[in-house]
């Protein structure tokens, strides 16, 4: 089923994107591709990451990713993932933001996403009407903070590449600067001007991205904290709760429930 899902997703721009449901294994990837329509991707169980030239968005089971039409993107799935893909016709896309994003999934939105990807259309126009409800819900929803932007400056990219390779790396901004040949002040300025956040905030978001993958794969909260660079579980729990909106323990409990 995973191979069939991948084959259906990786289509040319003038074809319709995949819509429906599939179970995909932990670590499964879909290579960069684009669609003539917009696309919503929801992990009813598991976690997914959507990457574009503007950065990476991670969506656990209480988030949905949005990719506008003709925007090149790739996906990676963490844990055994019940993925739901929904095409959004171009005439409805104008109600949503014009860049990739992640939105919170309300109970109403979750049930509507499941209904559209679980069962065939029983009455003409029923799917379109339900899709309009989904778009209305998302148009009023706040964007979430699970976006990890990527830099253009070579010095800053060298620094972020080192952190991508080892998110638990204990280095300071000054230490990174010495490694990549830039001053601490220069790197600090670049983090703010190019990425819109501090070095600490960017690294915390990167570590949360990796933590979501570890937790989805069944690693304990304590082991996840250590693997991702936190010195103690309590500081990890605080950071995770601030970014994701729930504790890591609750996140794992919700995964098991779904």
Structure description:
Pfam families: HTH_18 (PF12833). Helix 3 runs antiparallel to helix 4, helix 5 crosses helix 6 (173-180) and helix 8 packs across helix 10. The chain is 46% helix and 22% strand. The chain starts with a helix and ends with a helix. The protein has 258 residues and is of the alpha+beta class. It has two domains: 2-147, Regulatory protein AraC (Jelly Rolls), CATH 2.60.120.280; 148-257, Homeodomain-like (Arc Repressor Mutant, subunit A, Orthogonal Bundle).
Average predicted confidence as pLDDT: 86
Sheet-strand content, in percent, reads: 15-25%
CATH architecture tag of the largest domain: Sandwich
CATH H-level homologous superfamily name of the largest domain: Regulatory protein AraC
CATH first level of the largest domain: which class? Mainly Beta
Strand runs, count: 8
Distance between the termini: 20 Å
Tell me the number of structural domains: 2
User: Helix and strand string, N-terminal first?
Assistant: HEEEEEEHEHHEHHHHHHH
The low-pLDDT segments are 1-17
Q: How many alpha or pi helices?
A: 11
CATH topology of the largest domain: Jelly Rolls
Structural class: alpha+beta
Helical proportion, percent range: 40-55%
Shape call? globular
Q: C-alpha Rg, in Å?
A: 19 Å
Main beta-sheet strand count, sense and barrel state: 8 strands, antiparallel
């Amino acid at each position: 089923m995973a191979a069939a899902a991948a084959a259906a997703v990786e289509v040319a721009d003038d074809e319709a994107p995949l819509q429906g449901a599939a179970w995909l294994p932990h670590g499964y990837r879909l290579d960069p591709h684009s669609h003539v329509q917009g696309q919503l991707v929801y992990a009813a169980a598991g976690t997914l990451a959507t990457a574009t030239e503007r950065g990476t968005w991670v969506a656990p089971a209480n988030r949905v990713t949005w990719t506008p039409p003709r925007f090149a993107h790739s996906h990676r799935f963490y844990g055994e993932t019940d993925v739901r893909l929904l095409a959004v016709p171009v005439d409805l896309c104008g109600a949503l933001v014009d860049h990739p994003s992640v939105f919170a999934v309300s109970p109403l939105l979750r049930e509507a996403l499941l209904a559209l990807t679980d069962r065939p259309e029983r009455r003409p126009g029923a799917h379109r009407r339900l899709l309009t409800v989904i778009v209305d819900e998302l148009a009023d929803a706040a964007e979430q903070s699970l976006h990890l932007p990527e830099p253009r400056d070579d010095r800053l990219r060298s620094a972020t590449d080192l952190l991508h390779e080892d998110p638990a790396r204990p280095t300071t901004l000054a230490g990174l600067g010495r490694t990549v040949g830039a001053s601490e002040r220069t790197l600090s300025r670049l983090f703010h001007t190019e990425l819109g956040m501090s070095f600490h905030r960017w690294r915390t978001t990167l570590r949360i991205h990796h933590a979501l993958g570890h937790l989805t794969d069944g690693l304990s909260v304590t082991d996840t904290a250590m693997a991702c660079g936190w010195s103690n579980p309590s500081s990890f729990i605080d950071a995770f709760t601030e970014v994701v909106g729930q504790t890591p323990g609750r996140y794992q409990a919700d995964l098991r429930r779904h």
